[in-house]
Each structure stands twice: as structure tokens, then as C-alpha cells.
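task queued by scheduler; priority normal; single chain, no ligands, no partner chains; default sampling; output format set to C-alpha cells
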Amino acid sequence: MPKLRLTDHGMAHLKPQVGHVDYWDSSLPTFGVRVSPSGTKTFILKHRNSRRSLGRYPVISLADARTEAKHILAEFTLGKVRPGSVTYERAVQQFIEDKKRSKRKSTAEGYEWLLARLKLHGRLQDISHHEISSGLSRIKSRSTYDHALVAARIFFNWCLKRRYVSDNPTIGISPHGTPRRKRILTPTELKAIWEVCDDQDNALPAAYRNIVQLLIVTGQRRGEIAAFKTSYLEADIATLPSELTKNHRQHVFPLPQIALDIISRVQLTSQANDAFFFPARGKSDKPFNGWSKSKTILDKLSGVNGYTLHDLRRTFRSKLGALGVQPHIAERLVNHISSRTEMEETYDLWSYLPEMRVAMRSHEEWLRSTLAIEPPRKAA
């Protein structure tokens, strides 16, 4: 185990070897840097018979890593955690690792991207209300500004629970406030979009055409339909696992015949039991992801503009209301967490599948009439 005085100049010249090599700091013997065969340099602290990672160089500087190592050792000696003993970079790394265990990967990555927009550095306890405001002021998009503020509040509350900071510097900062979308597509617009998706010869990817039609028919989220697998379908029942849904609750709902017809025409690229119905181009193990380019083509071909794919979900939910579907059934169909109270979760174990089938059938009849979709063929 090499021992040397770690310096910024020396860090830059540590070369990868065969296997991992630990270089220990002669001025702080239990503190060092591990160099991997690929050249990655990770600060480590040998503490209580174990090695603890302090972050990667140069994301965390040598000075910050050494300071944190000293604070950790001091905290152990004093038997307490001192506010300000952790750097922003290190805390964000821990926060993201924690969220990857408890949230969807995309949610954790979203937090990471938003926190990076603030461009904060140094010790957590030294980050002020003014620095947060300055970081937010550099964000031009009002929506991104609001999302970054929410991410920062969640992050600093997380830090408070671990006593990394003594207060939350985001308190008192107001969001811009993004007006809630209320766009509902008209029957004429839906028909134009449907007909473009029905055209098998245009420039739209086949997967995208099918996904959009399923969004119109089922009212589900685009990511849930894009990631729909063969193992999620049994007869006319779709089961979205908790790790896929936004509210982390398994979602079981019936599919109308139109949806089953759309799915039946999909040519699977994989014969695996859990194959994606709509894989990414050339990647059978990844769901479809060509959203932006495909949406541009769809808008041009259909002549419908000023809407998002999520507006199709709002249109679906609103039409259920117009058709007289009871709110608690309509909410179940779109898997809104508000559809069930805690009391219902405990005592009402009825699935409401028959009621959801009736609602889906009513919506399907309206769609067939509005979009001029031919009824399903009767078996001979």
C-alpha cells in the first residue's frame, strides 16, 4: 500500500495499474485515493475497519475530500455529526444513490439533472439563501426553474434529516408558478391524429403510431405504454407493475377491443416472455424513445398543433366524465392515487374490474362513432 503526500500535482500523475491500487496520504494516514485499472480516482477513508468512499476526483477536489475526511474522523471522536461537515457534491451523490433505491431511476436522474443546474459548490452549511436564488436566476425556463426549486427543497430537507445542515436555505424562495394545462382535444383533432396513425405508409415509426392510438384509447401515460411488455397482458387485462407507474402502485385495468386489435397487429422483435411491444429502434431490450422527432412528424401530417401527448390522457379522463362514468371508476382507470382513501385500501378489496370494463366499453363506443372505426369482426 503506497504512502505519499497527496497533492493536486501528484493526483494528476497517478497512473492506473493492473488491479486497484490505494495510495495513502502521509499527512492523514487513514485518508487516501484508490486508482482503478481504468484510471478512475476515488477518495477513500479507512474508518472503523472499513473503507468509505468520499467521492471521485476531480468532481470532488483533493482539499474538499481531505476536509471531509477530517470532519468524519472528528465526528466519530466527538460522537456526533456536525452541521456543515459534508460538501454539496458529496451530499448530492449520497442523495441520488438513496433516491435510486427508493424511486424510479428516471426520477433520481431527474433530481440529479435539476440540482446540477444550480451550479452550487463547497460545504453544505456555507450555501446560503442568496446562492440558491442566484443559481435559480440563471435558469431561463420558468418550468425548469420551478422544478429545480422543488428538487432543491427535497434535497435540503433530506440533508436536514441527516443533520448535514441546520436549516433549509430554499425557504422563502417562491416558484414562478406554471399554469396548469387544460388542453382537451376536440373530436375533429382526435380523428385527424387517429387517421395519420392508421396510415401504414407515412414517415411515422410503426411503434409510435400504435402508442399514440393506445394513448387515445386507454388514457395511460406515454412511458407506461411505451414500456408495455408481453408479460403485462393476460386476455384483456393489463397489469402495470409498481416499478413502472408514476405513483409506484400496481395498476390493473381492462383493455377494450380496439386496444387489443392494435396490440394484435404488433410484430414482436423478440420472442422473450417479457418482450417489449414497442422497443427502441435496433434495441429490443429498451422501450421506444423517439418522441420529439415523431411528434413533429405527427403534427405536420395531422395539422393538429399546440398539444402534448399527455393532453390525450386529460382528454380521455374528461370524456369519461362526460359519458357519466363515476369519478372513482374514472380515476381508477388512469391510476390516480386519489382514487382510493387509506380506509378503502384497508377494507375495500374489490377490484372494480367489472365497473371499469363498463366504462371502457362506453368510451370505446364513443370512439368508434367519433373516429369512424369499424366494429370488431365477429368470429365465424
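post-processing summary
- The chain has three domains: 3-78, 88-161, 187-371.
- Strands lie at 3-4, 21-25, 31-35, 41-47, 50-57, 233-234, 237-240, 251-254, 279-280, 283-287.
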